[in-house]
Amino acid sequence: MTPTTRPLALITGASSGIGAEFARRYAREGFDLLLVARSEAALWALAEELSAEHAIAASLHTADLSNPTEVAGLVSVIDQQLPRLDHLVNSAGTAPEGDIDRMNPDELRRMVDINITALSLLTQAAVIRMRGAGSGTIINIASGAGYQALPHFSAYAASKAYVIRFTEALSEEQRSHGLRIFSVAPGDTETPMNPGAAKGKRQAHQVVETAWRAASTTAPSVIDGRMNRVLATVDKGARQASRTSHRRADDAPESLNGARSGGARAFSARCARTSAPIRRRRRGVREARSRRSRRRIGRAGPRATPRTRSLLRRWSGRRRGLRGFRRRRTGRESLPAAR
After folding, report:
1. How many other CB atoms are there within 10 angstroms of residue 246's CB atom?
2. Which UniProt keywords apply (predicted)?
3. Domain shared by 153 and 220, yes or no
4. Which residue spans within 111-188 are E strands per DSSP?
5. 227-236 pLDDT tens trace
6. What's residue 207's pLDDT?
7. Is residue 336 in a domain?
């Protein structure tokens, strides 16, 4: 590529889907582009479209990122041939479906090569180049599957979990060198790899907008779509609950799991010793709230309006629980005299 004063973005998986939408967004922002994918015809069509529409320089590099030799060639381009590198978007990926015992080993190896190995090597080359310039942005496309234990997509989900954790660690590691590194986790998105417009399915341009907003923050990872964030949070809570249950199982007596001695009586005694302080703290909190509510009603006194006294009485009843609610309903509760 010829030297230019415009910033340069390198995008893998740029022939379609999320990668192509990233290319269109960068072109609108005035970036020169290096588009990477296997399909030379699709890259030529996109490069010509963006060059004519936005007056930028769009070059292409055909490569199969499951091939180590071709990945090494692209790394060499980053190291030696690019005049500059301001942004890298690792959007290339593959998502084989199937139980692990029936998956083709070659397909599994190809998924690891693209989703993990190529992404890591290109990120490494970009970090070295960007640290020399003192600035740069790297966006790694992960998936909501990386936050979930996804049956029938176990290897794919694991590869995207790697992308998320790898990127989060790099974000902290390289922040002091002026680099902005983060991952974007789309959920169910309409792409050639995931065809069929299901209800509520996100579009590729929406994922790009999420990434564009995240670039101005310091978040090491973002999830595209509100419902996808909810699902990821729920799954995180389930994993934490599972870990807690495993820890509790480890404390069970020998009669339950063969790991501890002392029998069920000793186990019950340990549980009682653990829960008793918690019950005492909760009871103390309830009593303190009840005292505060009585003082608040007393300070209002006879000068309070009927509306204020009614609200305070109702609030106090809620604080005291069902007992206060019953007294209020039967009319046997009266406001104390002002102090």
Report:
1. 9
2. Oxidoreductase
3. yes
4. 136-141, 179-185
5. 666 766 665 5
6. 92
7. no
Q: Is residue 265 part of a domain?
A: no
- Return the structure tokens found at 80: 């030696």
Task: Give pLDDT tens digits for 7-21.
Answer: 999 999 999 999 999
Q: What is the largest CA-CA distance in the chain?
A: 89
Residues in the chain: 339
| Whether 183 contacts 221, CB under 8 Å | yes
Distance CA 36, CA 271 (A): 59
Q: Which residues form the domain of 40?
A: 8-238
Helix axes 263-300, 306-320, angle to 10 degrees: 170
Question: What's the predicted TM-score (pTM) here?
Answer: 0.68
Dihedrals φ, ψ of 136, to 5°? 160, 160
Report yes or no: 154 and 96 within 8 Å, Cβ to Cβ: no
Does one domain contain both 230 and 296?
no
Q: Own/partner pairs for 285-289, CB < 8 Å, 24+ apart? A: 289/319
Nearest 5 degrees, angle CA 101-CA 106-CA 109? 90
Residues serving a catalytic function are: 156
